[in-house]
Design a protein that fits this description.
Elements: H1 2-20, E1 27-31, H2 33-46, H3 49-54, H4 58-64, H5 74-82, E2 86-94, E3 98-101, E4 108-121, E5 129-144, E6 149-156, E7 163-166, H6 175-217, E8 220-222, E9 225-237, E10 240-251, E11 256-259, E12 277-282, H7 283-293, E13 297-302, H8 303-306, H9 308-321, H10 323-327, E14 334-339, E15 344-348, E16 351-363, E17 373-388, E18 391-409, H11 420-439, E19 443-444, H12 446-450, E20 456-460, E21 464-469
Antiparallel strand pairs: 1-10, 1-12, 2-4, 3-4, 4-5, 5-6, 5-7, 8-9, 9-10, 10-11, 12-21, 13-14, 14-16, 15-16, 16-17, 17-18, 18-19, 20-21
Helix pairs in contact: 2-6, 4-6, 9-11
């Protein structure tokens, strides 16, 4: 019985732990309503939506659709139509789109206002009779399971938004004819919008959705490979679209070297606060990207030829340990620096550091194979990130160490702190310039430009990078 109670207690604790666990995706792209509005408006232009509106067959539509849905006597309809020589759209405009959340905040409602002017010619008046029509198509965007992310669930024009009026006063004789034409257009125009424009809206949305997916999946080039993102899931909350992304790192041959698709460390996602979009990338993904730019390497320097002043300082420091060893140093003395593991990126609010495990060896000449000593150095540098144009730039400033280990010594045992100052200066003069040269090209941020912005800003949180556009 006691064993059963213990088992039940353990199961309860495990369940509580799982419920309370925070599982975060590797990256999150938040899209505000401005992005959806601008992208869809551009795709409507690409699909020549205005031409579709200008070619709406008004005359044939009113022949087929009785006013108000109430059948009229055929002779009466014909008498109206017999007085019309032609009827067509003379001016069409799509006003600024409006994006707002649905009543349950789980969908986006896109209102597409239409401003149309139709003209008809009749022998009753010498000039063209112009009718002003205002209406709007309404499209609903919802989340779709799977890799598509978003879907257009409906596109309608109910007629409730339709307003029709004459642009100019006309003669007393033509007024009844104009009123009859407007009554015939009340049911005909919404039907035309549904049958002619909605398919264009649906095609424009599909193009927008595909473009957003391509933008998400566009590889981010690295020096020896690239970083790829992929859509894991989508969500709509209020008027914000949230795309949760997986990530993977590939080498120069295209082989995946690391997956990040599994939920992992915490990820704090700041609110948009009016920004058009934000791209939040988890710390471990950025860490892997930096590591790919700074792979393990070995540097060997003929110190006396490259940095003669430091060669003298090093000799003086070794002389404090062993005069015999210092006397064996020649002009061909070599300092070897090895970074045996990739660096680790450490984030804090507004700042970042790069920690590295470094091995340093000193050889008295270029012919000696065994070093005087080998030091293990736990070093860190200030990591300065900034955005320049369409690239994320990183520069390492200064270098310091809390611990230096004497790994082995061929001269005698000594406290490695004796060499701390010269060792840090050697790393600053040899290792940092080499690493900064590899970082000089930066990381391209094609997403910012693809979303229609030329400048962006970077914010560092305790667990992520947050990129937002700079708006005028």
């Amino acid at each position: 019985m006691a064993g059963s109670r213990t088992f039940t207690l353990l199961c309860g604790l495990l369940a509580a732990t799982l419920v309370g666990a925070t599982l975060s995706p590797p990256a999150v792209l938040l899209l505000g309503p401005e992005i959806i509005k601008d992208k869809l408006a551009q795709k409507l232009r690409d699909h020549d939506a205005l031409r579709i509106l200008q070619e709406l067959p008004l005359l044939s539509a009113i022949r087929d659709e009785p006013a108000g849905g109430i059948p009229l006597i055929g002779s009466l309809v014909n008498s109206v139509l017999n007085h019309i020589i032609w009827l067509k759209i003379t001016s069409a405009n799509i006003q600024e789109l409006q994006v707002q959340p649905s009543s349950d905040s789980q969908e986006l409602i896109v209102n597409i206002p239409l401003d149309l002017v139709a003209g008809f010619n009749t022998p009753l008046v010498k000039s063209i009779v112009e009718i002003h029509m205002e209406t709007e198509a309404q499209a609903t965007i919802r989340v779709e399971n799977g890799k598509k992310g978003l879907a257009l669930s409906s596109c309608t024009n109910s007629g409730r938004s339709l307003r029709i009026s004459l642009l100019k006063k006309i003669s007393f004789m033509a007024n009844p004819l104009a009123n009859s034409v407007m009554k015939l257009l009340v049911p005909a125009l919404p039907k035309l919008v549904n049958t002619k424009l909605c398919p264009v809206i649906e095609a424009a949305f599909e193009d927008m959705r595909e473009e957003l997916l391509r933008l998400v999946k566009a590889p981010v080039a690295m020096s020896s490979g690239h970083l790829e993102f992929d859509l894991l899931s989508s969500a709509i909350k209020d008027n914000i679209v949230r795309l949760s992304l997986g990530a993977k790192l590939r080498d120069s041959q295209g082989k995946v070297t690391r997956w990040f698709n599994e939920p992992g460390a915490s990820l704090t996602i700041p609110a948009l606060d009016g920004a058009p979009f934000s791209f939040t990338v988890r710390q471990d993904v950025v860490d892997a990207a930096v590591a790919s730019l700074l792979p393990p390497e070995e540097l060997m320097v003929l110190l006396d030829y490259v940095l003669p002043e430091m060669a003298l300082r090093l000799k003086d420091s070794i002389n404090r340990i062993s005069e015999k060893a210092a006397g064996q140093l020649r002009h061909t003395q070599i300092v070897k620096i090895l970074t045996q593991e990739p660096p680790e990126l450490l984030l804090d609010e507004g700042s970042a550091k790069v920690a590295q495990m470094i091995v340093l060896e000193v050889f008295p000449t270029n012919e000696v194979r065994r070093p005087f000593f080998t030091l293990g150095i736990e070093a860190n540098s200030e990591a300065q990130f900034h955005i320049k144009g369409d690239r994320l730039m990183l520069n390492l400033n200064e270098i310091s160490s809390d611990r230096i280990h004497l790994m082995n010594s061929d001269i005698q045992l000594f406290d490695p702190e004796i060499l701390k100052d010269i060792v840090m200066d050697l790393l600053a003069a040899i290792l940092l310039p080499n690493e900064n040269a590899k970082l000089r090209s930066g990381i391209p941020l094609s997403m910012v430009k693809a979303l229609g912005f030329t400048e962006s800003s970077l914010t560092l949180t305790k667990d992520a990078f947050v990129i937002t556009p700079v708006t005028p």
